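Hi everyone, sorry if this is the wrong subforum. Our group has a chain we'd like a structural model of before ordering constructs, and none of us has done structure prediction before. Sequence below.
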Amino acid sequence: MFLKVFIMISKNKLKYIKSLESKKKRTEEGVFLAEGNKLVADLYGHFPCKLLLCTEVWRAHFPMVTAEETIIVTEAEMERASLQKSPQQVLAVFEQPKGHFPADILAQELCLALDNVQDPGNLGTIIRIADWFGISHLFCSYGTADVFNPKTIQSTMGALARVQVHYVDLKSFIEAQPEAPVYGTFLDGNDIYEETLSMNGLIIMGNEGRGISDEIAACVSHRLFIPSYPPNTPTSESLNVGMATSIVCAEFRRRMR
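Answer:
Right subforum, don't worry. Here is the predicted structure as tokens:
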């Protein structure tokens, strides 16, 4: 592969980078944008790098990092290209992954699903949680935030290198694996700490305001509730979806020890 290196960034290239804020443009190009020393380092090697913008200082420290096109920029140029309030020394455009999974995946391992989670930051946080607890596949409804949104990518802190995210019709996906246990969190569910939890199946987390939709709730075989402490005392109305996901995943993994 011929690798191109430039010392100056053009107006057209700046315009292209800014255009990647748009989901339509990211989808058309099949790419996503990542910024920051650690994030780029974590993702590099997992996804083909199409474009690399970096300062001379960064390049001197990481000469082994290559891309189809590399542009050496000044800090002022990086500030103009960056989507971040506090730009670092590197910005990269990676090729979007094309994830695959076996048809009976829920019989083989524990997976997560999101039913219309809207906030890109919440999605990124949940990908990090999945990574922390060794969950390799996250299934999202079509109404869930875009995993390649720059805010989501930044929030993953590199976890996308190890967690595959798939967009599916959740109802059809679940119905295609009728023997697999399906868990969901509900205010009228059973205490998670007293329920029998399996080592495989699907954990569904719902929308920030509405929870799991009625259509998907009908597919849930095990309704779980995260109790507050102490019982029967005034407390917050609900947990953030990221916090709730962390608690649920931790309890599943604790049972496996």
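For your construct planning: Residues 128 and 156 are 5 Å apart (CA to CA). The chain has eleven helices and eleven strands.
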